[in-house]
Design a protein that fits this description.
By secondary structure, the chain is of the alpha/beta class. Helices cover 36% and strands 17% of the residues. It has a nine-stranded mixed β-sheet, sandwiched between helices. A two-stranded antiparallel ribbon has the order 5-6. Helix 4 crosses helix 15, helix 8 packs across helix 12 and helix 8 crosses helix 13. The chain starts with a strand and ends with a strand. The mean pLDDT is 96.
């Protein structure tokens, strides 16, 4: 079976852009990826377009990708629309890999774009309300929030302002982790402080101000133990990746020195399990599959991008990826093991907490960062000598975990 390579990446800044449409941001990201690869748009033989909320926000359903890509002249090829919650973009990336492995062409595009920010706050926050079983949504939300029962919520530790209901769910996951392993709010704050420090060096990040642990703890509360800087913001943005087969790399005359090999890509859905059965978390199982497919292990990874919609997400995912034992994610973060220059740098981009989280673009935004790192082109946030990199991107909620997750390994 042919090897698959990422040959071009492009990404818009993530942030709040009232004056930019989904079409605008798609065009910007795709053109940047084409320029990065040194390719013309007419060499693309298939495209997978990721978007999760344009239907909710703008009532644009069904053919979002065909519309966004036609605007920039990409037409007459297979275009597949991908919606898979916050894992939509990594799913599109995985499907582009499969398209090439199935010998449907030599060059394929994966692109994600999202316009989430709105002055209509109710509309904006309600975009997340269908990311679980809507037939009993209130019951599901309460059950997930109750995972942390037994950990006292200090008075004044819940925001009086509107926020995504998913923050209560993440707070429940956080309190379960605290109750089970003794994780502390300070350790979660260390994750956020580290990611805000990383994003100060990322010109495409939504937030670029460094924060100390003390500043994170003193920030406005959202849902205990989470404060505002521990939570990903509402974001607009787009990211794109061009993939080629090994034969296509030669046929198209592309620079092999800048091509990054896809060593593994695993997509799976969740399963029914007890909340305390951490070893069978779906991203733990996906990571084990990815390591086996790549012939590598956690110890071989130079850098990681993980889904930190809140700081607790990063703690959970570095455990699932095998970088630390279960229960050690918080202490390792406080010790600085996951910062640039540490034992295993995590989210050098700033992660979702600081870089931003336009859900339909997030997974390819992670790929953009890892490709940049593996090429040695990340500037002040460069991880020295990066050879292998891993991305974890989850989406939705079902049972006691994400509904779906994708784990991708890239390497030189």
């Amino acid at each position: 079976m042919q090897d698959i390579y990422v040959v071009g990446v492009g990404m818009t800044p993530f942030g709040k852009f009232r004056d930019k449409s989904v079409k605008d941001m798609t065009c910007e990201a795709v053109n940047a990826a084409l320029e990065d690869a040194g390719l013309a748009a007419n060499r693309i033989e298939g495209a997978f377009f990721s978007n999760a909320v344009q239907g909710h926000m703008e009532r644009q359903h069904m053919i979002r990708g065909e519309i966004a890509l036609r605007e920039m002249g990409i037409q007459g090829i297979p275009v597949v629309n991908v919606e898979n919650a916050c894992a939509s973009a990594s799913t599109a990336f995985k499907l582009a890999i499969d398209f090439l492995k199935a010998a449907n062409g030599d060059c394929c595009l994966a692109v994600g774009a999202e316009k989430m920010y709105s002055d209509d706050r109710a509309l904006m926050f309600s975009a997340f309300d269908s990311g679980w079983d809507v037939s009993n949504g209130e019951e599901v939300a309460q059950r997930l929030a109750d995972l942390g029962a037994g950990v006292e919520e200090p008075e004044g530790s819940k925001s009086p302002k509107p926020y995504s209901v998913f923050m209560d769910v993440y707070a429940g996951f956080a309190r379960l982790h605290m109750k089970t392993f003794g994780t502390t709010q300070e350790q979660f704050a260390a994750v956020a402080a580290k990611n805000h420090a990383h994003s100060a060096h990322n010109p495409l990040a939504q937030y670029r101000d460094s924060m100390s642990i003390e500043q994170v703890l003193a920030a406005p509360p959202i849902s205990y133990p989470l404060t505002l800087p521990m939570c990903a913001p509402i974001s607009d943005g787009a990211a794109a990746a061009l993939l080629c087969t090994g034969e296509g790399l030669k046929r198209l005359g592309l620079d092999p020195a800048r091509a990054i090999k896809v060593k593994a890509a695993i997509l799976r859905s969740g399963t029914d399990r007890p909340p305390e059965d951490f070893k069978n978390h779906l991203t733990r199982l996906a990571a084990l599959q990815a390591y086996e497919q790549a012939g590598l292990g956690p110890e071989d990874m130079s850098v990681a991008e993980v889904h930190d919609a809140t700081a607790v997400g990063e703690v959970i995912q570095i455990e699932n990826l095998g970088f630390v034992e279960f229960g050690e994610g918080g202490p390792a973060s406080l010790r600085g093991e996951t910062k640039i220059g540490g034992r295993i740098p995590v989210n050098p981009s700033g992660g979702l907490e600081s870089k931003g989280h336009p859900v339909g673009a997030t997974g390819i935004g992670q790929i953009f960062e890892l490709v940049t790192q593996l090429r040695g082109e990340a500037g002040a946030r460069q991880v020295e000598g990066a050879q292998n990199a891993i991305a974890e991107n989850g989406g939705g909620l079902h049972g006691v975990e994400e509904a779906t997750a994708c784990v991708t390994i890239l390497g030189r």
